[in-house]
User: What shape does this take?
Amino acid sequence: MHRRLQGRTLFVPRMTDEGAVAFAAAFRSIGIPSEATPFSDERTIKLGSRYTSGEECYPEKITLGDFMRCIEDYGMDKVAFFMPTAGGPCRFGQYRPLLSKTLEQAGFGSIPLVAPSSANSYDGLGEHSGELQRTGWRALVASDTIRSLRLRFRPYEVHKGETDRIADESLAEICRIIERQDLSQKEKLAAMVQGMRKIGERFAGIPLKNETRPLIGVVGEIYCRLATFSNEDLVRKFEEYGGECWLSGVTEWIFYTNRDQIQELIRNGHRFSRQLLMARLKNHVQTRDEHKLVEPVRHLLQGREEPADVREVLARSMPYLPFTGALGEMVLSVGKAIYLHDKGACGIADISPFSCMNGIVCEAVYPKVSADHHGIPIRAFYFDGTQKMVDQEVDIFMELARNYQRKRRFSEA
Ligand code: SF4
Assistant: This one.
């Protein structure tokens, strides 16, 4: 992989603002110059629209637009792109072939693409696969955790902007550890745990208002719910209208693909194979790393604990979208919505790109989920870059969530 990328910067798409920055640091740790794509803007949409037909999903348009901006700004000989892919029932599997084709047709076919797949649980990352997977995983856990802290503290901060400043500085601090090349895996984990401890201390020092806000669980399509540009920073809007958000991170998707890989091997008769052993081992190591990295800040996220095992989410989705038949994010969205309800959420927002298959299937199932869970408001928010009424929609949804909160308190009392 190194040879192909020589003299280039590998750009990581901003699937999440924090995750892309941290994952780029993981690439730097194996000697590959890497950055997150610059923050999306109007030029992203303009370029994305120029190279897509309108049938593609919104995240594809944004990713492509951002890559094209990189080509314009840095030159085609200086860039390479990271584009993970997945099979399953939706169009995500087409992103990578479409990107190759578009670059080819535009005369940029020589730009290298690094494209690991969910089919092998993102194992195929070249000669540094093992090292990068381990560091990349830790980068994702740390960045998910910093985002959770940001969302836990920001709605209650006394000094506006303080939480964002601390979260941004924390991310930069942890990236400085992630990118180090002089540490063994063991030393790096220890340094990151120490880094998370310091981050926890900084968050714990933020002065907070004493108020109770309705908790809004946020699920949906992974890119659109996590990339603030694509959803017009909906989470911040919920906060402006009086809510606190609990946003599903990236790591649950990785745990889901791990589980899927294990099931697939068993289904295909590899129950006693080395492959299965390695897949189980990887899941075990990742779970252990996650516990270690989250532990120093666990007390700050009390009541906002992620499921100990992805099976907790899958079991909850079972009566509506059995994971044995349905695949991909729709299963996680429905199961997580119920998990968040069980943890005290007073409303569920599903963020999806307009025409997203996962979003459409979930929207069909949500009325039943709501009816079975005391009428909790569940609303699908679709985005394609043309929304006009987001504020009104959030305002109405928050009113429903407040009503539900009152009802819930009354029945609990
Ligand atoms: S999850 Fe939705 S938006 Fe994402 S690729 Fe699939 S259909 Fe498109």
